[in-house]
Amino acid sequence: MKIDLTDTTSSKINNALMDARRASGSTAAGMVLTLVIVTDEGSAYDALKAANDASREHPSRTLAVIRREGRSPRARAETRLDAEILVGSDAGSGETVILRMHGELASHAQSVVLPLLLPDAPVVVWWPDNAPLHPAHDPLGAIAQRRITDAVTAESPVGQLAQRAASYTPGDTDLAWTRITGWRSMLAAALDQKPVKVTGAVVEGESYNPSVELLGLWLHNRLRVPVERLVTGGPGITAVRLRTKDGEIVLDRPDGLLGTLSMPGAPDRMVALKRRDTAELISEEMRRLDPDDIYATAVRTPVDRLKEPAGTAAPAPAAVSEAAVAAPPVRVTAKVPAAEQDPAPAKKAAARKAPAKKTATAAKKTAAGTKKAAAPRKRSGA
Predict the structure, then answer these.
(1) Are the CB atoms for 205 and 234 separated by under 8 Å?
(2) Beta carbons of 176 and 210 less than 8 angstroms apart
(3) Widest Cα–Cα separation across the chain
């Protein structure tokens, strides 16, 4: 069922939703959360399609906020709210309301959204693109328990990670982090099967892909080893190599479909590592609404900890901010705390100083003996 409302209000939209529910024979809502999508006309279709697919796992009321501020002064002066209500098979397993806000109303979207939220249900806000610099301080983000952004849609994806780290608030997450869930699971399972000490790691993937950077930062935080970043043609992440004394543990996925896990002393195994679509990523994020502490730790690690090996040149996009330019190719070495440093060098230095001290003492004794020999001897009486 589809209902169009022109120049309407939040109260009329709520009444239309109740009428549509009665007409379909369902008086109970049966929805678990409210998903607010903040987008534009260009991205609205793909975002709504992903949300409808995700609603089959998480029945929800989807509110698509589309701001249309107008190009001319006359259009910006016109304040109007148009709504499109989708119920039934057109809206997946929930309800969908598309809100087109014209004029000054576009700057006060929260006043329209608040009356349409499901009572006593969590709120998730998703920005498919053009996310605010500080999602938790955004008027719509402030009413949500979970705020989802996507760094891959930014002009400078790696620079966007630095912005996400600076503005992180519990409840924030990014789809660039969600895309590496399969990689993290496989690597953790591999180290559980073969508990060895990892001395270094290499992450291979597309240039300026924030998921590659986040995977490397996660490895650096969990293993406390230097991580190198190697640029490949993709798609996405292509391989991860963990260096151990017995050999390399390699998880390779050259085609974006199947991966191969190679471990020293074990046969190669094929693992499922298909690149997931947006609906699957959104479904995963809506399974948990508590703060993701692991993501917070990874995204707050400085990106310059990941360095490209010497002699590797990464193709730079035409338009990129200075914050996203790769650092000079230098190998990262983790600093060892002073309390854990090996005392052997200090002992060796003390040993070097000891002979010098002995030499000075011997010189003093020699000088004293010479002076004594030069003194005149007293003759005994006859």
Answers:
(1) yes
(2) yes
(3) 146
